[in-house]
Write a structure and sequence with these properties.
Structural class: alpha/beta
Helix content: 40-55%
Number of domains: 3
CATH superfamily of the largest domain: Periplasmic binding protein-like II
Shape: elongated
Largest sheet: 9 strands, mixed
Distance between the termini: 38 Å
CATH class of the largest domain: Alpha Beta
Radius of gyration: 26 Å
Strand content: 15-25%
Number of strands: 11
Number of helices: 13
């Protein structure tokens, strides 16, 4: 490991590089301009290279200075965010969680009362959106992400693996066009969600028809929705047949709001994962929420345990590894 120079010298250099001004760096760090200049010169001597070009009325970074400045700014930002996270981990009261809107609506929120009963002293703050978040920078204690589970700078634990199968309303099954075999779907409106629509591993009707051995049905026709929860609401309203993921339809199937017209399902190559920043202590309250999530996930997966034994795996690990780099850019859905 390379010898690390003085932290105070690095801090002085980083501030001066960010502002391109020794004066403004001195104001930020509450020291004199001479102290900044001395620290930077000492750092240059220690590294054996020039970091700043001292011009007549300003300073400019050398190539070495630009390289070190980028690394130093990222490092100090991470340290500051990490210290804040450590401070939050030692506090009782709040867990900040980032999830997708569909997962929040269809799975997490309906179960929060269970967590509240077990941990009445811990509050949960849910931030639901589809964009990728940086938990350290955005002060998020725990994320729930949909993908292969490979995320740079995050420790992950599998939460739920999806079985994928058609669902519809009981009324549609009883009064709509015949729906006795998968081939009958040609006479029904197919409902789609647009989640990761450009990702070849995402679950879609084409993959389900392949698992069911069905040909000659246009898998692209029908209604499309930006969120899975909207698609499932449309299915419950009798507007068509949706391709459901077991995680999101578990409650609707259990209470009869949706039914499965066929037994055919396949295992999706993606799953839901708990993700936390590497190297940042979770603390007892975050650990309690994580443990509770895993307990609830076991209950959910038990509903479809029998189906999982008979499912056809069309998205397994043989294709996941090839998309590891792309997965790092996927949104938290």
């Amino acid at each position: 490991m390379a010898h690390l120079p003085s932290l105070s010298a690095l801090r002085a250099f980083e501030a001066a590089a960010r502002h391109l001004s020794f004066t403004r760096a001195a104001e930020e760090l509450h020291v004199t301009q001479a102290a900044i200049s001395h620290q930077v010169k000492a750092l240059e001597d220690e590294l054996g290279c020039t970091l700043f070009l001292r011009l007549s009325r300003r300073v400019a970074l050398t190539e070495e200075g630009r390289l070190l400045a980028a690394a130093a700014t990222e490092a100090f930002t991470r340290i500051e965010s990490g210290l804040e996270a450590v401070g939050r981990a030692g506090q009782s009261g709040v867990v900040n969680v980032s999830v997708s809107p569909s997962f929040a609506v269809k799975w997490l929120v309906p179960r929060l009362d269970n967590f509240r009963r077990q941990h009445p002293d811990i509050d949960v703050r849910i931030s639901a959106n589809d964009r990728m978040v940086d938990p350290v920078r955005e002060k998020v204690d725990l994320c729930i992400r949909y993908g292969s589970g490979r995320y740079p700078k995050l420790d992950t634990t599998r939460l739920l693996t999806d079985q994928v199968f058609p669902v519809c309303s009981p009324q549609l099954l009883a009064t709509g066009p015949e729906l006795k075999s998968p081939e009958d779907l040609k006479d029904h409106v197919l409902l789609h969600d647009e989640m990761m629509k450009h990702d070849p591993l995402r679950p879609d009707w084409t993959k389900w028809f392949s698992a069911a051995g069905v040909t000659g049905v246009d898998a692209s026709r029908g209604f499309s929705f930006s969120h899975a929860s909207m698609m499932l609401d449309a299915a419950a309203a009798g507007q068509g047949v949706a391709l459901g993921r077991s995680t999101l339809v578990a409650d609707d199937v259990a209470n009869g709001r949706l039914v499965r017209p066929f037994d055919v399902s396949f295992t999706c190559g993606f799953g839901y994962y708990i993700a936390v920043p590497k190297g940042v202590p979770m603390g007892p309250r975050i650990q309690a929420f994580r443990d509770w999530l895993l307990q609830e996930a076991q209950r959910t997966e038990s509903i479809f345990a029998a189906d999982a034994k008979e499912s056809t795996d069309v998205g397994g690990t043989s294709t996941e590894g090839a998309t590891e780099d792309a997965n790092a850019q996927r949104s938290a859905v």
